[in-house]
Design a protein that fits this description.
There is one protein chain. The protein has 4 helices and no strands. With 89 residues, it is an all-alpha fold. The longest helix has 31 residues.
Length: 89
């Protein structure tokens, strides 16, 4: 078995209580809060939209909902963190 070096969890991962795949962290870091908000809103809409999507399934809808919830949690975390940082400076 290969040894997988542990990395420290980000503040957001500590906040939500679990590690995220590096690809998700990279995606979050590569986009502005506004872009993430638009993505989260689209994912949320797609998860409840009554129109059938390509490859539609209950599992896909669940994954879209979970992705939007994660993005909304990150946005809320960023807003609170920024507010605290700004009030201290």
């Amino acid at each position: 078995m290969r040894y997988k070096p542990q990395r420290e969890m980000t503040n957001f991962e500590q906040h939500i209580g679990h590690e995220l795949p590096q690809a998700i962290l990279d995606h979050i870091d590569a986009h502005s809060t506004e872009e993430l908000m638009r993505q989260a809103e689209k994912l949320k809409f797609d998860s409840i939209c009554p129109v059938v999507m390509e490859n539609d399934s209950p599992e896909l809808r669940k994954e879209l909902k979970e992705a939007s919830e994660l993005l909304f949690k990150y946005i809320d975390f960023q807003l609170v963190t920024d507010e605290i940082w700004n009030s201290e400076n």
